[in-house]
Design goal:
about 250 residues, globular, alpha+beta, Phosphorylase Kinase, domain 1, about 50% helix
């Protein structure tokens, strides 16, 4: 069956490993197939549970202190002038290595964050009820969030634009409540996530995750993330509209 073929590719799709053309075809299939959409949502939830379990244990300061004390040198080194050049070279090597590791760590954090946002976006697409407040009126959608999230935000005027506001719901990132707004352009849906800056560091560059394009920025203590399977030009236009309302 056609669905069996698509289901075999769901994991690769959610991990961003499919070719762009194949990912777009699968995305279109998910919009029209309730069974595959439900299977996609189930796998997204499983991936998020595994990620949460992997971050569950972190050593406390007392444990770290005991380990550091157990491996500390028993006596101080005796300095010698002949050692200094070699030590200086070794320190330079260590510094370069630390900078490289920090850069890789930041990139991994960015990719992990984008993957989580892509999971939330896919879960919304696969849901039978993608939004909790359904309205094209920004004056209806914005007040609905009052008391549900710890901040407020502005929505743009979309008249004379290609975009339509579908509605919104409360979403969560790193246990912080935020807003997920759904916009439609042609037959595509775009998720706009708004979270407090403490929930996630802003991604420093335009990236993609799970075959989706993404944009992000920070403003007045809030992080904005725009993600969808539309062209970069569409994301840029919607991002500018949201920024103009800010």
């Amino acid at each position: 069956m056609i669905c069996d073929t698509w289901k075999e590719k769901l994991d690769a799709y959610l991990d961003g490993e499919l070719a762009p053309a194949e990912a777009r075809a699968l995305s279109e299939h998910l919009r029209g197939c309730a069974a595959c959409a439900a299977e996609s949502l189930s796998r997204v939830q499983q991936k998020r549970l595994v990620q949460a379990a992997g971050r569950r244990f972190t050593p406390n300061p007392a444990f770290r202190a005991r380990i550091e004390q157990s491996i500390a040198p028993r006596r101080a080194l005796r300095w010698n002038r002949l050692w200094f050049p070699a030590l200086a070279g070794a320190m330079a090597f260590v510094i370069v290595g630390v900078l490289f590791l920090n850069l890789n760590h930041e990139r991994r954090n960015d990719q992990r964050l984008l993957s989580e946002l892509a999971d939330l976006h896919v879960a919304t697409l696969a849901s039978a009820n993608p939004v909790d407040v359904v309205s094209t009126d920004r004056h209806t959608v914005k007040p609905w969030f009052a008391g549900k999230i710890p901040f407020t935000f502005n929505l743009p005027e979309l008249q004379d634009s290609a975009f339509t506001l579908v509605g919104g719901k409360v979403s969560y990132l790193n246990q912080s409540a935020g807003a997920e707004l759904i916009f439609r352009v042609r037959q595509h849906q775009i998720s706009v996530f708004i979270f407090p800056e403490g929930a996630a560091e802003n991604i420093r560059a335009v990236q993609n995750a799970a075959s989706f394009n993404a944009r992000s920025w920070s403003h007045n203590g809030l992080c904005y993330f725009v993600i969808g399977d539309v062209s970069p030009q569409d994301l840029d236009k919607l991002s500018e509209l949201i920024k103009s309302a800010g």
